[in-house]
Queue: 2 jobs
Job 1
Amino acid sequence: MTDDRIKRKVLLLGDGAVGKTSLIRRFVVDKFSDDYITTIGTKVTKKDLRIESPGKATDITFMIWDVLGQKGYKNIQESSFQGAKGALLVYDVSRPDTLRSVKEYWIPHLIEITKPIPLVLVGNKVDLAKDRTTARDGLEDAMEELRVTGFLSSAKTGENVEASFACLAKAVILEAESKLLRGERIEEDVPNELIAVCDQIMMDACDVMGGQEAAMPIVRQQIQRAGVDVRSPSTEGLKLAVEYLAEAESAFRNAEDVEASKLKRLTWIKAVA
Ligand code: G3D
Ligand code: MG
């Protein structure tokens, strides 16, 4: 028996409301409906797994990144993609357009940044499917087309949630081992969690200023004004951005709410600094 512990960044990608956050919560704390952000705190969730194969056990720590599901904020997403060693691509079986997005948007954008990495396709909300056979057929066609493994899951009932993550873990381990066999260096890059915090702050600011469509231009302006590079934000830059955002929000919200948001965001920065 040889034991190794490896740490890997993996992503959950897919359109808004397909169930990414719910899947992470189900996997990590085995719950469906509690307030996830307040229990876990940041967008990066760690989970230790042990993958057994004959004669060998591998311990792997997944750093699971819950990536912003809005299409069209390409460079913010791309900064989250950097250094990822695997991804779950999530769609909602009751909304066929979300599967189309996986094929046409999420995979192409991901591969551009990370080059080929292990992918697992997840058709979530199977508990809502009117007809499981149709859902199964849809998944299998996509698996064949994309040449990836896949599962039908439900964050609500827990079906195949563990299996999806375990499948990704095995693929990530295999990839690391085959790199070793080919004599390639495995870069143990420590992903910059400040990227996730930056993303989380931007989303939070959008939420309190009328949603992403309306508020993103204002938010981005403040982020730029603070000199924050969303691809490698610094602690100091983010703190300044939080100040500037509070200033911008003062035009829309009362002083206590603005202060509460500011303190919350500073806590997120502190948690990873
Ligand atoms: P996202 O992180 O991909 O944006 P969320 O998606 O995890 O926030 O989920 C979006 C909505 O779908 C939530 O409903 C959530 O409860 C629901 N949901 C997620 N997974 C499942 C599932 O497997 N089955 C069912 N039936 N619902 C699911 P609300 O109402 O909170 O917006
Ligand atoms: Mg979410």
Job 2
Amino acid sequence: MSIVQQVQWFPGHMAKTRRKITEDLKLVDIVLELLDARIPASSSNPVLREIIRNKPRIVVLNKSDLADPKQTARWVAKYKAEGLCAVQVDSKTGKGLPALYRAIREELKEQIAGWERKGMSGRPIRVMVLGIPNVGKSSIINRMLIGGGAGRAEVRDKPGVTRQNRWFTIGKGFELLDTPGVLWPKFEDPAVGERLAFTGAVKDEILDIEGLAGRLLEVLSCLYPQSLEARYKLKLPEGPVAGHELLELVGRKRGMLVSGGGIDMERAAVTVLDEFRGGKLGAVSLEWT
Ligand code: G4P
């Protein structure tokens, strides 16, 4: 069974999510679209543009600490060429957040000038975060709160807003909607599903772990052979090698044996996926532009 078949979002769930996002959008000035810097295209949802229409948007390439900086810079340039502002962020440490705040002000400079003309200078800029599961929405929100002075983070219900949305004050002049919009990942293309599974955006319980780790090793042996060799202290054979052979190689190198001398493939698979997701294989981008 392919990953595409293994993971399904129910149409009812999608419709509900979409309605919620559409409502929340009315409350904010700008949307932060969180993408995984290692797989910017696969972690985006093409329906987003349809949902947000003309609402200003900034692409946030999150988990940039785990991505290949050369590739991330190329993605930023690509978005810029398309007229979109993109900023790289590491939500674990907060790196990139000051640049993100600057980008938001720049993106909204006409609106801000308009507010000033109307005597509304100092009106806070209202922001919401959107992204697929596991892309780092909670992490960036928490980071923004810490940056805004966690202890002083103001959480309050706004008069006039009937729903129970709360606003966080995040640094000077910004308010953040407390609940991020959760977009569904797009699975029609098996390669996209696979990349989402590699990065952990898809739950492992429903996946064939050994097959997945094998495929990841195949991909890495093409894109970052030296990182693979360095991490597992092995020499990759010449030419293409099947995933299960690579996994066996890793298992053998790590001494992951079962009684009888065979390789504990499941343990090797879990190790490879964990180490990749934890950045132990170095800064790696699975989608190049
Ligand atoms: P979500 O709300 O969009 O579902 O994502 P969430 O913030 O829960 O983040 C999902 C995982 O990604 C978490 O790891 C989180 O720590 C990690 N993460 C988020 N942003 C970054 C980033 O910029 N860099 C790195 N390296 N990791 C990031 P976890 O293993 O599920 O949890 P934890 O043990 O790290 O807390």
